[in-house]
Amino acid sequence: MANIIIVGTQWGDEGKGKIVDCLTEKSNVVARYQGGHNAGHTVVIGGDKFILHLIPSGVLHKDKLCIIGNGVVVDPLALITEIEELKARGVAVMENLKVSKNAHLIMPTHVSLDLSKELKKGSKKIGTTGRGIGPCYTDKASRSGIRMLDLFWPEQFKEKLRANVADANYMLGQFPDTKKLGADEIYNMYMSYGEKLAPYVDDTDITINEAIKSGKSVLFEGAQGTLLDVDHGTYPYVTSSNATAGGAMTGLGVGPKCIDEVLGVAKAYTTRVGEGPFPSELMGQEGELLREKGAEYGATTGRPRRCGWLDFVVLRHAVRVNGLTGLVITKLDILDGMDKIKVCVGYRYKDQLLKDFPKEMPILEGCTPVYEELDGWTGHTTAGVRSYGKLPQKAKDYMKVIGETLGIPIAIVSTGQDRDDIIYS
Ligand code: GDP
Ligand code: IMO
Ligand code: MG
Description:
It is a single chain. The protein is of the alpha/beta class. The chain has 3 domains: 4-101 and 201-263, Adenylosuccinate Synthetase, subunit A, domain 1 (Adenylosuccinate Synthetase, Chain A, domain 1), CATH 3.40.440.10; 104-197, Adenylosuccinate Synthetase, subunit A, domain 2 (Orthogonal Bundle); 268-424, Adenylosuccinate Synthetase, subunit A, domain 3 (Adenylosuccinate Synthetase, Chain A, domain 3), CATH 3.90.170.10. Helix content is 31%, strand content 20%. The protein is built from 12 helices and 20 strands. The protein has a 10-stranded mixed beta sheet, with helices on both faces. Strands 14, 16, 17 and 18 form a 4-stranded mixed beta sheet that branches. A hairpin with a 7-residue loop joins strand 19 and strand 20 (422-424). It is globular and about 65 Å long.
């Protein structure tokens, strides 16, 4: 199979994990390139549910190589816990998992800073997952980060850690109630994590390029989504990495010419968890209905997800900035039974009709969605349908509108949580 990047086209939680799991069957390598354990990727196999946070969603297939790339920020304890939990459930995690030496480590200082900064922001908070993601990427960009390889150079690690803790404690000084952290305690903890993770640590840039050169196919698993991308999302209400397709190159050390396809995953409606603009959000009962039917509660934090209609302004932006070659529509079954389905075709801002996603926050906040209404497929169901021909005609019409509006083919439709509830076109 080809080398494919899988990206979220909305604000995350589009069902990327399920799609990566399904496509892994025909791939050799599955690689994460950004984000950290802020991600929660759900895979359901015969009723058994797995939520992957750091380990690529291909791990549930035997004999596939899983790579955590240099662009990922790794909380070592979270990774060890995830490995152990998977092993306890009978999943093989050993030679099939490689973690980049260059991946930056999330330190306890990052978690404290994340939580404290959010508290300080009050009503302007981002609504982060509290996993230390932002502060870790901040240290990376400011060249004071600590990487996986540092765990194997104790003296160097100790020196970097002291500087890191001193800086963090200085900043945490603004927050009188926050407990200050001790470098020695962290040193001992992280040395023991290093011992446990040593078998997995690897020159993943070399491993992945050799795999590609030898004709193996790679799935690049994006976390979060286009509108959470630090450059192309609803800044500052974003995560701190490049979730879009470009991030796959820098986050693993591969060149753009090795990519054959870029598939964007979109829910048949839209959700967002955390703060920030969401033009097609449904505030009342309609939103509540989508949340309950779609079980829209965060896979990582359990927070209720905000829900709204499908938004073509968002998706057009995602097609463009990711160079999407195809679309994957998930959770079509959640729209079963709805009499009417709305799609957002533009934003009204003062006397203008906007078709492109605005970058300026005041404009975005002043936009109201312009909807078109489509017929639902009441009396028919898409849940568990596994061939395109068996979808109700109105559901096919919905797919057609999406494909034609965005000008790209719909490659896959997902009709249920389970691995087998899927239609390939
Ligand atoms: P990810 O972060 O993009 O991998 O998505 P999440 O796992 O956070 O959230 C997607 C949720 O939708 C999970 O609970 C999935 O099991 C579920 N899901 C994925 N595809 C479908 C589908 O087609 N139908 C239904 N009903 N659930 C789905
Ligand atoms: P997956 O990969 C949905 C959101 C948080 C918050 C913002 C910044 O499962 O789709 P962070 O902790 O990254 O600094 O939080 O980003 N966020 C996600 N929302 N799905 C995710 O991952 C997310 N990862 C982060 O809610 O709004
Ligand atoms: Mg998720």
